[in-house]
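Input chain follows. Return structure tokens only.
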Amino acid sequence: MSVALARQLREGTKKSHTMAENTGFVSCFLKGVVDKSTYRTLVADLYFVYSAMEDEIQRLCNEGHPVVSMIGYSELYRRNTLEADLGFYFGSQWKDLVEPSLSAKAYVDRIRYVAKDSPELLVGHHYTRYIGDLSGGQILKKIAKNAMNLSDDQGLNFYEFTRIEDAKLFKLDYSHTLNTLPINQKTADLIVEEANQAFKYNMQMFNELEGNLVSAIGTVLFRFLTRRKRRGSTEKSIN
């Protein structure tokens, strides 16, 4: 039985998406306020999150899981790009220098738990992270490059999907795949719920990063930037 999962995910996560964009860290990011120290911590956190997700997805694909194997698009994988970025920000010995924040560890633990207990729910995490990255990557890349005064694209590999020639066509194919997953409505509801949980884990990472950002730019500027967002100024959307 097929369900319109793509539409349900899009509609069912709208509120969470808006809440994530309104966190202090993302609000500042979208305004072009990004410092290298905070950004490299984000890259490290994302490395652990994506490593866990890609380990589990690959394992389940190899095992022939009927749902997860259908969304195992290796061209979306981010671990290699994150490793390249970590090498840029931390140097060649980056593996000895980085560790997950408490919020990233909680995120990783959730991914591992879901992969073991209810693997089909990984679809919610997959959709939240990968399609978000693919949709807004170029906008965020440009903001980060300008904010950190990077002379080239080094340190920004995360936003590059070199194996995807046409993002729009890819997302159409992805939506078709979501709509043809062998699941029922009850499972679809659980996947949407898990996608909202994924947003919560992302927001917890963003909130933990706020302390680093405040130290870098100062409390007054941070409050000013986030206050303007709440008053309804027009912002760039990452989707």
